């Protein structure tokens, strides 16, 4: 039943998009000739255009000369996933985890494929491995949250003998469609958005989760949808200015490695990504930010939906630190406390 | 902080049964990681250990591990609780309660839960969640309040030597206890979770969805092939309504001990039409010990346990009474004999007066009477209808008549004295 609503390609795409844009193989690339890097960029481009057969051809050609090239193999795994050849993709990603156990992305993508196959236990194990290699890998944390929710939903189905079209799973999936509808992937944007059931417009999640099962998961969806529509709530313009300034301050503190100012941007009831203690999360952030090397964080396509003292903020975040360069979609739930806009929740991928 | 309320409701769910609630740390460590990879030898060892744990779990029933799951939750060890609940599911794949707890444990990782089965959602599910919560409570209660090793259910006063086992059911605890007859003394063998009638116990009328309270026995065995999946691995009808029930005007029929449909490990504590329902594996284990027409099934609201000493003295005082009745009958002194009978006596349509008058007439024609009572069994009826069912082989000889019969008497307390309320051939 869920199968019809659940478009595996979309889920894969969602989770793979950040992975593609992460140039985490820089170390390998620097060892390669410029021509090789160009090859792979072309493969990435073809994948983004949905031309998977050509992408596969090109990446295969590339791998003939460089059979061990991690970046090439990784891309091939993505192409195969897109072409709905999960078993071949699993083989490639599994081999990558064996050859490069320190990289979280192959684990993450393995998890995505396992999740498509409803093999949630394996998906969970893979994500836990990804997190073990990179404790702050946000995509894996978020995916793990998804997997837990799906496993929970499965467990409830078995416990209560209910239809598996569980409401919380539905809204999660709607969230994924929304991401895809934002134009990140050409040719696929329109359709899922149309088929999504209308949701009442709600803004950010309340600080405390409502007892109703659906509410917490549904809220961001509704907010995200609201962000798409051009008309903003009345009086939002003034708030928008303040919120933009707050986001600027936050990214500036981050880029300048001013951890105190950076952490001060987070509300006292900030929801840590993996539900860990605030202190543990702060320690981890400090450690990351204080690593040697410059950090540069910027954004584009800022979208703000504000209502009263809460707001949903979406943007494309560009992060550059030494060898690592990533771009990802960010979603912030912000609240105004004592006249200051603060971050209550920070999520990657939507 | 997020996990705290989850722990809170689990504790609330079990606090009612005397669980010790300790102070909880809101910052309890909760790591997502698994233990570090082990060496090959260690893995093999762990596998063997796991297999052994699973085998033990299959024998013990789910309660010991279920108890540990709740203990882990109480101590904020959610990872451990999840591992334990997954092992429960591995050994008992259709154990819905375990699936519900698993759902909660998983969902608690990404959001706050405010109630047991909190993510199961939906109005339609609430009743099912309530059923599973009740099941959890009675299972844990049943496990924590196992009868002491040297105690005996009051009802099993004397079993026949050929009655190898006896069954005692506690409807309030949703529990069935199996006892073995060890040279006349009942010895605890095993106990099992059971489901009773939707509307509880004390059956009185046809279709009242209640489980009868009383002393019964297994009358036959029905094969699962003829029954269909709903009754699971088999069924054992009991003799409700028995003579006493009929005397009280109770009716209805088809009260069985039976199994569970294949799509679930167990049913909620109150779900049947009046039958006593066990899980299939429990019924299979139990059925090996059942003797058709012989094994007593005593159903009680709340089993009374006696120490062996108290049980012994209750037993001998009743045996003494029966012996007194026998001697007084042999004496042919009708007044002495009549002392043993209740004013409310009824048998074969005769009341006390008719019965005694007839005895007086019969005694007048006797020059001698010899009575032997052998193979005496005595079972005390649970609950409000306090009486003892006495069954024995009676060998009656006299100057003009002899006969052998299996006799059953119902002894009740009247004015502090045990009196016969009814008797007749079985």
General description of the model:
The complex is a heterodimer of chains A (350) and B (426). With 350 residues, chain A is an alpha+beta fold. Chain A has helices spanning 2-5, 8-21, 26-31, 34-48, 52-65, 70-82, 86-99, 104-116, 120-133, 138-160, 167-184, 190-195, 215-228, 236-255, 259-264, 278-289, and strands at residues 266-271, 295-307, 310-321, 324-337, 340-348. Chain A has a 5-stranded mixed sheet with strand order 1-5-4-3-2. In chain A, a hairpin with a 2-residue loop joins strand 3 (310-321) and strand 4. Mean pLDDT of chain A is 69; it is low at 1-34 and 164-236. In chain B, helix 2 crosses helix 4, helix 3 runs antiparallel to helix 4 (78-91) and helix 3 (63-74) packs across helix 6. In chain B, a hairpin with a 2-residue loop joins strand 4 and strand 5 (185-193). Chain B has 3 domains: 4-144, no CATH class; 151-303, L,D-transpeptidase catalytic domain-like (Beta Barrel); 307-425, Nuclear Transport Factor 2, Chain: A, CATH 3.10.450. Chain B has helices spanning 4-15, 40-60, 63-74, 78-91, 96-107, 123-144, 224-227, 243-247, 280-287, 308-330, 334-338, 352-364; strands at residues 151-153, 156-158, 165-170, 175-182, 185-193, 196-197, 214-217, 235-237, 256-258, 270-272, 276-277, 296-300, 305-307, 346-347, 350-351, 369-380, 387-398, 402-414, 417-425. Classes of the chains: A alpha+beta (350), B alpha+beta (426).
Topology record:
The complex is a heterodimer of chains A (350) and B (426).
Chain A: H1 2-5, H2 8-21, H3 26-31, H4 34-48, H5 52-65, H6 70-82, H7 86-99, H8 104-116, H9 120-133, H10 138-160, H11 167-184, H12 190-195, H13 215-228, H14 236-255, H15 259-264, E1 266-271, H16 278-289, E2 295-307, E3 310-321, E4 324-337, E5 340-348
Parallel strand pairs in A: 1-5
Antiparallel strand pairs in A: 2-3, 3-4, 4-5
Helix pairs in contact in A: 2-6, 2-8, 2-11, 4-5, 4-6, 5-6, 6-7, 7-8, 8-9, 8-10, 9-10, 11-13
Chain B: H1 4-15, H2 40-60, H3 63-74, H4 78-91, H5 96-107, H6 123-144, E1 151-153, E2 156-158, E3 165-170, E4 175-182, E5 185-193, E6 196-197, E7 214-217, H7 224-227, E8 235-237, H8 243-247, E9 256-258, E10 270-272, E11 276-277, H9 280-287, E12 296-300, E13 305-307, H10 308-330, H11 334-338, E14 346-347, E15 350-351, H12 352-364, E16 369-380, E17 387-398, E18 402-414, E19 417-425
Parallel strand pairs in B: 3-12, 6-10, 9-11
Antiparallel strand pairs in B: 1-13, 2-16, 3-4, 4-5, 7-12, 8-9, 14-15, 16-17, 17-18, 18-19
């Amino acid at each position: 039943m869920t199968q019809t609503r659940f478009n595996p390609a979309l889920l894969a795409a969602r989770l793979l998009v950040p992975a593609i844009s992460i140039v985490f193989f820089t170390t390998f690339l620097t060892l390669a000739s410029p021509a090789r890097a160009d090859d792979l960029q072309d493969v990435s481009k073809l994948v983004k255009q949905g031309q998977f057969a050509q992408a596969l051809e090109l990446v295969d050609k590339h791998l003939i000369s460089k059979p061990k090239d991690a970046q090439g193999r990784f891309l091939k795994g993505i192409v195969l996933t897109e072409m709905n050849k999960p078993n071949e993709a699993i083989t490639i990603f599994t081999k990558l985890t064996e050859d490069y156990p320190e990289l979280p992305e192959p684990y993450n993508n393995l998890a995505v494929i396992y999740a498509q196959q409803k093999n949630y236990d394996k998906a969970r194990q893979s994500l836990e491995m990804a997190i073990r290699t990179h404790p702050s890998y946000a995509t894996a944390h978020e995916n793990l949250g998804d997997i837990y929710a799906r496993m929970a939903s499965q467990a409830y189905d078995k416990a209560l003998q209910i239809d598996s079209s569980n409401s919380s799973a539905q809204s999660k999936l709607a969230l994924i469609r929304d991401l895809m509808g934002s134009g990140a992937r050409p040719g696929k944007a329109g359709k899922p958005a149309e088929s999504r059931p209308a949701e009442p417009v709600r803004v950010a999640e309340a600080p405390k989760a409502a007892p109703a099962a659906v509410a917490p998961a549904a809220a961001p969806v509704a907010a995200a949808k609201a962000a798409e529509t051009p008309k903003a709530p009345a009086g939002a313009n003034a708030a928008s200015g303040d919120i933009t300034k707050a986001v600027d301050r936050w990214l500036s503190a981050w880029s300048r490695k001013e951890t105190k100012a950076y952490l001060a941007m987070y509300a006292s009831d900030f929801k840590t990504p993996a539900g860990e203690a605030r202190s543990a999360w702060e320690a981890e952030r400090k450690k990351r930010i204080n690593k040697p090397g410059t950090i540069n964080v910027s954004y584009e396509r800022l979208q703000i939906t504000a209502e009263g003292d809460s707001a949903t903020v979406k943007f494309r975040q560009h992060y550059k630190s030494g060898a690592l360069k990533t771009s990802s979609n960010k979603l912030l739930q912000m609240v105004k406390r004592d006249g200051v806009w603060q971050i209550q929740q920070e999520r990657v991928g939507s | 902080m997020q996990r705290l309320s989850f722990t809170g409701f689990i504790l609330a769910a079990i606090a009612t049964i005397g669980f010790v609630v300790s102070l909880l740390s809101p910052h309890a460590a909760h790591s997502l990681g698994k233990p570090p990879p082990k060496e090959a030898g260690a893995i093999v060892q762990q596998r063997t250990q796991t297999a052994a744990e699973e085998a033990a779990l299959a024998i013990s029933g789910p309660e010991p591990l279920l108890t540990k799951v709740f203990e882990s939750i109480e101590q904020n060890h959610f990872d451990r609780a999840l591992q334990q609940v997954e092992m429960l599911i591995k050994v008992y794949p259709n154990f819905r309660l375990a699936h519900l707890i698993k759902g909660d444990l998983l969902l608690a990782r990404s959001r706050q839960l405010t109630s047991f089965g909190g993510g199961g959602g939906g109005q339609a599910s609430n009743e099912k969640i309530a059923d599973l919560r009740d099941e959890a409570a009675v299972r844990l209660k049943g496990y924590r309040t196992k009868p002491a090793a040297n105690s005996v259910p009051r009802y099993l006063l004397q079993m026949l030597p050929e009655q190898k086992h006896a069954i005692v059911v506690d409807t309030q605890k949703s529990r069935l206890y199996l006892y073995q007859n060890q040279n006349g003394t009942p010895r605890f063998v095993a106990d099992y979770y059971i489901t009773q009638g939707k509307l509880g116990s004390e059956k009185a009328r046809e279709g009242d969805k209640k489980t009868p309270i009383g002393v019964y026995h297994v009358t036959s065995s029905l094969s699962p092939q003829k029954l269909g999946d709903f009754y699971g691995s088999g069924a054992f009808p009991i003799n409700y309504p028995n003579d006493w029930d009929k005397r009280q005007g109770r009716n209805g029929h088809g009260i069985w001990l039976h199994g569970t449909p294949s799509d679930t490990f167990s049913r909620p504590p109150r779900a049947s039409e009046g039958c006593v329902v066990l899980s299939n594996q429990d019924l299979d284990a139990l059925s090996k010990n059942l003797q058709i027409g012989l094994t007593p099934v005593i159903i009680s609201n709340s089993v009374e346990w006696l120490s062996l000493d108290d049980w012994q003295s209750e037993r001998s005082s009743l045996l003494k009474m029966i012996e007194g009745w026998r001697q007084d009958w042999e004496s042919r002194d009708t007044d002495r004999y009549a002392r043993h009978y209740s004013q409310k006596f009824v048998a074969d349509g005769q009341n006390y007066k008719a019965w005694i008058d007839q005895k007086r007439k019969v005694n007048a024609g006797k020059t001698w009477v010899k009575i032997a009572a052998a193979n005496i069994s005595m079972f005390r009826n649970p609950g409000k209808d306090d009486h003892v069912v006495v069954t024995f082989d009676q060998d009656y000889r006299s100057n003009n008549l002899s006969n052998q019969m299996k006799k059953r008497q119902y002894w009740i307390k009247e004015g502090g004295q045990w009196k016969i309320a009814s008797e007749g051939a079985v």
